[in-house]
Design brief:
Elements (H helix, E strand, L loop, with lengths): L5 E3 H4 L3 E4 L5 E11 L4 E8 L10 E4 L3 E4 L3 E3 L20 E4 L4 E11 L5 E7 L13 E5 L3 E5 L2 E4 L8 E4 L2 H4 L49 E4 L4 E4 L18 H12 L34 H4 L31
Protein name: PRC-barrel domain protein
InterPro entries: PRC-brl_dom, PRC_barrel-like_sf
Organism: Chroococcidiopsis thermalis (strain PCC 7203)
Length: 335
């Protein structure tokens, strides 16, 4: 660990937190939460042990720490509190750009005061992954005073801040002369187009043959001018829509018309001798209705007085047709 009270983020991670009153291990530091507006470390996140990645996170304020060494000492277990860390940021993997949009890299760590929590500088690199060692990737230190404003996962610094950056380590690629700092790369190197297979490529969007423009047919309504005798001026009358004549049903001449037409064509009769159609028939005038005289119905009780099975009347003989005997079939000889 560094001298005095300035330490790095990577030095305090995975450090045990122990209660001073009963020597109980409260957890291991897994994350540091920063208030970007005040540029200070506010709280620490804890987990049960180094391999307990799925444990329930616990939090404590930086002001609860009484001493930092190989371990972190706090007074008692009351240092663990419920803290809303959603309003804070861990600054890891935040993009750093200048006011003109020049990329400088991503944050992979920072240095701060262990007592007050004030951040002194940012440690940036082309990749914001703290797990990559410093010997593999080049790292740089940027003073926190260069930060102008902050946003979601982004820090904006003054223009020309790349000239005031201190190099901390040289990566393998730069040692071989292959890699460069992010601000030293040309603009063309930031965009690497991916190759697309020919069958998946889209067309240029230009049609093979431009469609021919067809003139629009417009009909202008006829305008009539009316003469006003009083003012002696021409007035424009509103256009009148000409109505199409209705189609009449084809007329079929009847028998009388055909006879009349033939008579006009072939005969030399005068107008008085020509055929004249018969006048319409005259129907007789309706006669007033005269009701028929009322006749009483026949009394049916008279027929009920007699005996239905009596022998008053002689039975009439039935007309039964006589049965005629058919002659039998006689065979003819000579066969």
């Amino acid at each position: 660990m560094t001298s005095e009270n300035t330490i790095k983020r990577s030095d305090i991670l995975n450090t045990k937190v122990i209660a001073d009153d009963n020597a109980k291990v409260l957890g291991v530091v897994s994350q540091l939460w920063v208030d970007i507006d005040r540029r200070e470390v506010v709280a620490l996140g804890l987990r049960d042990n180094l391999i307990a990645f799925a444990s329930v996170p616990r939090y404590m304020y930086l002001s609860s720490i009484s001493k930092i060494g190989d371990v972190i000492l706090v007074e008692n277990e009351d240092a663990i509190e419920d803290i809303d860390v959603e309003i804070y940021s861990n600054l890891v993997n935040c993009e750093v750009i200048t006011e003109t949009g020049q990329p400088l890299g991503r944050v992979r760590g920072f240095t701060f005061n262990a007592q007050t929590g004030k951040i002194y500088s940012l440690i940036i690199a082309s990749l914001g992954l703290p797990q990559i060692p410093d010997q593999v990737i080049s790292t740089y230190e940027l003073p926190i005073e260069e930060v102008v404003s902050s946003g979601p996962n982004r820090l904006i610094v003054f223009e020309g801040a790349e000239e005031r950056i201190n190099r901390l380590s040289v990566g393998v690629l730069e040692r071989l002369g292959i890699g460069k700092a992010p601000w030293e790369k040309e603009e063309d190197e930031y965009y690497t187009p991916t190759a697309v297979r020919p069958e998946n490529q889209l067309g240029s969007g230009v049609p093979l043959q431009a469609p021919k423009a067809q003139p629009l047919k417009t009909t202008q309504p006829a305008v009539q001018e009316a003469w006003d005798e009083d003012e002696y001026e021409y007035e424009t009358v509103q256009p009148r829509i000409e109505q199409q004549p209705l189609r009449r049903q084809q007329y079929e001449p009847n028998r009388y018309d055909r006879d009349l037409e033939e008579e006009e064509n072939w005969s030399e009769a005068s107008g008085s001798d020509r055929y004249t159609p018969a006048p319409p028939p005259r129907y007789p005038e309706p006669q007033p209705f005269e009701p028929k005289p009322y006749t009483a119905p026949k009394d049916l009780d008279d027929d009920l007085d007699g005996d239905a099975w009596g022998e008053d009347e002689e039975p009439q003989p039935l007309n039964i047709p006589k049965k005629i005997k058919q002659p039998e079939y006689e065979e003819e000889g000579g066969y």
